[in-house]
Amino acid sequence: MHRSATNLLELGAWIQIGSCVFAAIIGASFVVASLINPESARAAEPLSFIATSLPVFLVLSSLLLSFVMKLRVERQKKVPFQDIKALSARLGEIGKQVKTRMGVMAKVEFVVSLRSGLVYTMKKRGNNRIMAGDRFLNGASDEELEGVLAHEIAHVSHMTKPRIMPILATVLIVVQVLFIPIPRIFIVLGAVFAMLLLLTIPGNWKTEYYADRVAAENVEAEKVIMGLKRLAKTSLSGFSFTHPPLARRIKKLERFSRSLPK
Ligand SMILES: [Zn+2]
User: Fold this and answer.
1) Cβ-based neighbours of 167, under 8 Å, separated by 6 or more
2) Please, is 139 exposed, middle or buried when counting C-beta atoms within 10 Å of its C-beta (0-12, 13-18, 19+)?
3) Residue 242 carries which DSSP code?
4) What is the distance between the alpha carbons of residues 166 and 241, in angstroms, rounded to a whole number?
5) Residues with CB under 5 A from ligand 1 (ion)
6) Strand pairing partners for 108?
7) What is the whole-number distance in angstroms between the Cα of residue 249 and the centre of ligand 1?
8) Which of 38, 65, 130, 163 shows the smallest number of beta carbons within 10 Å?
9) Rounded to the nearest whole angstrom, what is the distance from the C-alpha of residue 180 to the centroid of ligand 1?
10) What would the DSSP string read from start to end of 189-232?
11) CA 202 to CA 98: how far, in whole Å?
């Protein structure tokens, strides 16, 4: 991915975070003002409404953006079926190698997902599945593949808590939008939503940085960086609250690899 594109994504991340901070502060002030001086709260209602609608607006537009990007990925040339079989064999082989090198005992299944450029881990009833998109695998170098697989395998052994927050946030978005006709409730929900999003960030980002670091310790940091860059290109994904901006992850990995004894 082009340098300026990753910078743009990082800027987008900070805009979203900034909008959440702004909405949380304005929303909370509105609630306090309504209790102390209802007159002034009524005057501040339009501004508060706008402030607390920003995070929802940004989340919905980034969802729309990723949907459009997904359609673009799907319209790219299909990977032929016989190639999928070869990709699947290579994925399983490299996956097993990396897993052994990392000393992970848990059972992991490596599965090619069709018409996708993503790589992610699914946990279902103690079953670990690492899904890798055909669009990512097709044309990926061994180094890139090792890098992303090491990151995902690190998740298998170190991520146990269920991610309830994204579900809660989704429910809140829907409820908040339904309350547009009643601005006061809309503002309160918007403030709660903004605070929830902000609360999820430290934990999510820490998990991701941790997985990057474990991956870098086991395969080289350079491979993880290469894998992340390829992932950014094939998944064309926008900003997400579950992952830190790519540029930051790469910077951290570079710093980590410099700190290692040569
Ligand atoms: Zn991850």
Assistant:
1) none
2) exposed
3) T
4) 9
5) 208, 211
6) 128
7) 11
8) 38
9) 35
10) HHHHHHHHHHHHHHHHHHHHHHHHHHHHHHS-HHHHHHHHHHHH
11) 28
Cα(120)–Cα(114) distance, rounded to whole angstroms? 13
Please state the length of the chain. Answer: 262
Render pLDDT for 101-156 as a digit per residue (tens, 0 to 9). 999 988 999 999 988 888 988 887 778 999 999 989 999 999 999 999 999 999 98
Q: Rounded mean pLDDT of 59-82?
A: 80
Q: Tens digits of per-residue pLDDT, 74-96?
A: 777 788 888 899 999 999 999 99
How far, in Å, CA of 226 to CA of 102, rounded? 19
In the chain, CATH 3.30.2010.10 covers 81-158
Q: Express as a percent the part of the chain with pLDDT over 70.
A: 92
Antiparallel, parallel or unpaired: β 119-124 and 108-113: unpaired
Tokens of 218: 């086991």
Helices within the chain (DSSP H only)? 3-36, 38-43, 45-75, 81-101, 134-137, 142-158, 165-178, 183-218, 221-235, 246-259
Secondary structure class of 78 (helix, strand, coil): coil
CATH class of 81-158: alpha beta
- CB contact at 8 A, 114 and 81: no
Token readout for 153 is 């395998």
Q: How far is the CA of 226 from the centre of ligand 1 (A)?
A: 15
